[in-house]
């Protein structure tokens, strides 16, 4: 077929968490430039299955850039070289015919490899569960606009809320820090009126959980915001720091309340 | 106590210590450069030697000096602790080096900091230690005629071994006898390798602070639409340009003078 591409893939294969992995080279042949990166891997996997070989494991779900399931560290970039997209939104036309593409899993002690390119990102779930919520008692449904929220605040909160928790920030960070993710969740809720009652216990609980998971420490390089598919900004981290220090310094009512408000 | 421990043992607490010690060291640089501009005065070291004498004999300065040494040590130790933790957070690295968009200086703070620590050790052993604890420096006598304001200089040999300094006025002539650190600087800065080392170290200061100054404010959580551009402005122009160039000019000019 004309216009189709042939590529060489260097893929990280690892049987399970305990077994050491290695790179295996595969040929991806007859790839349409209009395929997504994951569809290209589907084609490779079909040929592997036909040859009775183990297909390459990778995480995916919605394939429209909103679920945060897909990952892949492609040629030195989480989610590939293009800005503000996830791997499922990356098209093969980004690459050139004959190119060698190196595909690695997210590298972080807190994200152990399950198999091949699939990592266990439940550390993010535990950070979220530590305080990334708003407790609401049941009762009558309030009117939609009963709580006034300034437009700029609503916009900022929504920008932070677009974080899909994919872990690209951790993958991109030279320190494997999860502060962009954690701070996006803290900022999203901390900006809104509904998030105020738990604001200062939330930040302490989520930071404590983040530390416990074994992520690294932010040095403000900005690699995370450059690679984030949702363009979450570094300013979220500053918001988190601010809330954390004011909680520790000035909020006596939360002083012994670092476990999440119980 | 455990509440404090918990705060400062957290990731953000350690970063806070890095930021605060770093900013304290930044303010020191301003004072240090300001004082050392006296080296550019063409008075055979009278102003500079008097200044050095003042710094070493004024108690409040002594207190701040020890805080400063403490800040350097704490900054370096916490940097080491954080770096070890960060390494542990990624035990298996990538085969393809990360190509993410981040400034060179932000990715090499450890390297730049190590150069600076080496520099500080050499710098302090050469001038600070020599001045305070090593009895190798000579003395200068500056005689200023208070009527004409003319100053004459001569070497001075102290009558006792533990002589520190003396300031007296006789017949309308002010006589200042102080340790001659200026001569030591002239000797040190007449060696080319020494000058090159100093200039490289000042380059490291520049890149370290280009990232470090604004990063400290981010760590403190002080990011604001109106004020952050001001922080960037000072971080870039004052701390990464003016201060390193000002310091680097000292060895360069003294080297050229020595030729």
Automatic annotation (TrEMBL), chain A:
Gene Ontology terms: biological process: aerobic respiration; respiratory electron transport chain
Annotated 4Fe-4S ferredoxin-type domain residues: 154-184
GO molecular function: 2 iron, 2 sulfur cluster binding; electron transfer activity
Pfam families membership: Fer2_3, Fer4_7
Cofactor: [3Fe-4S] cluster; [2Fe-2S] cluster
Family, as annotated: Belongs to the succinate dehydrogenase/fumarate reductase iron-sulfur protein family.
Name of this protein: Succinate dehydrogenase/fumarate reductase iron-sulfur subunit
Source organism (scientific name): Mucilaginibacter terrigena
TrEMBL record, chain B:
Top-level taxon of origin: Bacteria
TM stretches of this protein: 16-40, 63-84, 109-131, 192-210, 230-256
The UniProt record lists the keyword Transmembrane helix: yes
One cellular-component annotation, GO: membrane
Keywords: Membrane, Transmembrane, Transmembrane helix
SUPFAM superfamilies hit by this protein: Fumarate reductase respiratory complex transmembrane subunits (SSF81343)
Gene3D superfamilies given in the database record: Fumarate reductase/succinate dehydrogenase, transmembrane subunit (1.20.1300.10)
CDD domains referenced in this protein's UniProt entry, alphabetically: SQR_TypeB_2_TM
UniProt cross-references to InterPro entries, sorted A to Z: Cytochrome_b-558, SQR/QFR_C/D
Protein name per Swiss-Prot or TrEMBL: Succinate dehydrogenase cytochrome b subunit
Record organism: Mucilaginibacter terrigena
